[in-house]
Write a structure and sequence with these properties.
Blueprint (H helix, E strand, L loop, with lengths): L5 E8 L3 H10 L3 E2 L3 E3 L4 E8 L2 E9 L5 H9 L2 E9 L2 H10 L3 E8 L7 E7 L3 E7 L4
Parallel strand pairs: 1-5, 6-9
Antiparallel strand pairs: 1-6, 2-4, 3-4, 4-5, 7-8, 8-9
């Protein structure tokens, strides 16, 4: 999709952020503070490495969290890919043209410094998250 999407992170569903991040920290990742997002019903922690993709660990706050369903079906696993977009509304419209279904959003995300995010699904591509970054 030309320059509409720029890779941002891999989201990983986990039961316990502290336990899951141990392996990443041993591989040289640096962690950031855990942020609670009551709208998405998750706790979030970003991990960064100078030569590897950024990881977002997502732990459910309760059974309403979409992460809970993933954990019950497949356990700890990659959950979504996230891309930055300049204009979230335009990106949603263009992704809908490619048969993506809007699952959630746009909503403000505390873990993204209040920037708006949305989740979309396509049966051939799975779940993606887009995060608005007007300066992109």
């Amino acid at each position: 999709m030309d320059s509409l999407l720029a890779f941002h992170h891999i989201g990983v569903a986990c039961r316990d952020i502290e336990k899951t991040k141990e392996l990443y920290l041993s591989m040289g990742y640096k962690d950031f503070p855990v942020v609670e997002d009551p709208v998405q019903h998750v706790r979030v922690c970003f991990l960064e490495h100078e030569s590897a993709p950024r990881i977002e660990l997502l732990e459910p706050l309760d059974q309403e969290s979409p992460v809970s369903r993933t954990l019950s079906m497949v356990g700890v696993s990659p959950y979504h890919l996230c891309y930055e977009v300049k204009d979230i509304e335009e990106a949603i419209n263009r992704l809908r043209e490619r048969r993506f279904i809007l699952v959630t959003g746009p909503v403000e995300a505390p873990a993204m410094d209040g920037r708006r995010i949305a989740f979309l699904f396509n049966k051939n591509n799975g779940l993606i998250e887009i995060v608005e970054n007007p300066s992109r």
